[in-house]
Amino acid sequence: MAGSVTLASRSDLFCLLSFLDSRLPAHCEVQMVVKAALLAANTSYQVFFLHESPSNDTYSAIVAIKKENVISQTQQNQKIWNLAEWSIDENALLRVYEAIDIDWKRDLVLAFNKHHNPHEKILKFLEDRHRLGEHCVYSAGRYVLDISEAMKLQTTSLPDEVYVKSLERHHAPLIYEHWTAFKHTTTVDDIADEIDLLPSAGLFLKDNDELVSWIMGHAPMGMSRLFTMDGHRRKGYATLVTLYMSKRMAQSGFLPFVNIVVGNTASTKFFEGLGFRFVRPLNAILTKPQSTDQTATSATN
């Protein structure tokens, strides 16, 4: 008989970290959320786990959650659940999914899983909750830089006209403005909170302190939102902030990693050129509630 699904306490989180450390680099996104849950003073980060049996402390599934807010098409606040997982199989994983207090009739869900395409059992789980009417699947690859290599990076040699430092909360609106691909999955406030909590890097011009290039931690996506402003590209600025960020991640106890969508050869070449290596395929499936009309149509088919 399997154990029950448990919301991790602070002491549980430390035990989970020890377990996940032995499963790096493949499951670094889960470890990142667990570490963030230990650092955060709110419930935006939560971790649920399942033991194989009530008398056995061996884990069979772990789901690490980052909750954010989005503005819906009707300009209303809506919750989005970012789910990262480790599990022995899909049956164990879905038991944890079922136990999480997700409002399947209202909330958005972005679930990260192994392999380039979602497992048929996961698709069936979502279909049963009327979530596949307007879903998107992002196939990607996980690339990592070993912590030992990141700690050796030289980040003090910079062009005379710039300096690099961590981002601050007031930079969040600028980052949000230029996060065009996935702006619909976050808000300015959530970006600001991540700047406070996780490593980040910004490159500034010395003559006016203008922020022109940046990258930041974004659980469970790792190092994300890399961007350089028009007029400042092809100067190596993206390389400088990425190197600084990679070292800050390592110094903070996080494994430096990125998720690159399949087919994005420019990003793959960029990160591989900095020493990142491919470790696993993954997919992220974004689902939202099915409209009333779609639900009615499904019920009559």
Automatic annotation (TrEMBL):
SUPFAM superfamilies to which the protein is assigned, alphabetical: Acyl-CoA N-acyltransferases (Nat) (SSF55729)
Superkingdom of this protein's organism:
Eukaryota
InterPro entries recorded: Acyl-CoA_N-acyltransferase, Acyl_CoA_acyltransferase, GCN5-like_dom, GNAT_dom
What are the residue boundaries of the N-acetyltransferase domain, all occurrences included? Answer: 162-291
Q: Which GO terms describe its molecular function?
A: acyltransferase activity, transferring groups other than amino-acyl groups
Name listed for the protein in its UniProt record: N-acetyltransferase protein NAT1
Its taxonomic placement starts with:
Eukaryota, Metazoa, Ecdysozoa, Arthropoda, Crustacea
Q: Which gene is annotated as encoding this protein in its UniProt record?
A: NAT1
